[in-house]
Here is the input.
Amino acid sequence: MAESNYLGNLTVLTNILRDPLIAAFAAYRNEKTAARKTAFMHELFAGKAETNFSAYVAEVVIRDDNAFSRACAAGDDLSPYLKSAYISDLTEIGKALDFETDDFEMGKPPVTIKSWDDKAANLLYGFYQSSGYGMFINRHEFRYDGKRGLVPVSPCPYTLADLKGYEREKAEIYDDLENFVKGLPCSRILLCGESGTGRSSSVRATANAFASQKLRLVELAREDLRELPALVDMLSRLPLRFLVLVESLGPDDRIPTCGAENVLLAATSDVPLDGFGVTVSFRSLGEEEYLAIVRELSKDLKLKLPAEELEELGRRWSEKHGFTPRSARLLVGYLYACKEKGKEHKM
Here is the structure.
């Protein structure tokens, strides 16, 4: 027979019961049978939460996509009913976690929550306003899939400081995105030039520089361009700003007519295209510009090769890989790997 109804009366945070570990905990908390305990302990160890279960629950609560977190992210005035219901849910979770056992450590929730009451609700309001909500909290880059929706992808591995050269071009991208996140006049961005010049890396690194201002990047495959209106319609209802990036557009591609105040389009192409207010041209590098990037990257990785040797290696490498930032990065990465392994480079 059930002893109580722990976590059975949640109204705003009901989604947390979809988490297998929390669901198993609720079942065990309400009916302390050997079978319930076994199922819970299995999930507990699988989730590596045996040393601080409260922190695990707090993370699930913080990342939950619900009416409260969305309203906070949007900066809306919360109705007293929504806030009261949310606080009631936090209080109920706190009561469920008031449980002593020698089988695992309940621990404490992180600073973001601290307690399971109105103080936590107030802390989370500010957190959601600055960080977004749900899957957008720690994820800054996504890919749009027509069937699965937004799918998180690995973020750009470079910061703007990592990307050498093309300072004027990067500044143009930065200026337009800065206008976008501040709600100032901005335009669709076309990044035009050869592959390997750093077009997509530049726009992705710049987008990540504005992640703290609730800008998220969404990649849309060229073959899914027809999905753009549906994607923009979906993004328009979310309380963040989105940069949609389409790569490798061709001269015959047509951008569907669509728009939303919180969505901006960027695209890469080998040729100029119509329909973009800002065109940033990534021209081919000359030998000296290429070698300058090689030197800067080598300095960042503390490669202590004589300048003349490094430049000669750069010239020989370019015969196969060309004068591009990507080529320079590949060369320096190869030389760095050789140094770390204590091996002679073979060029």
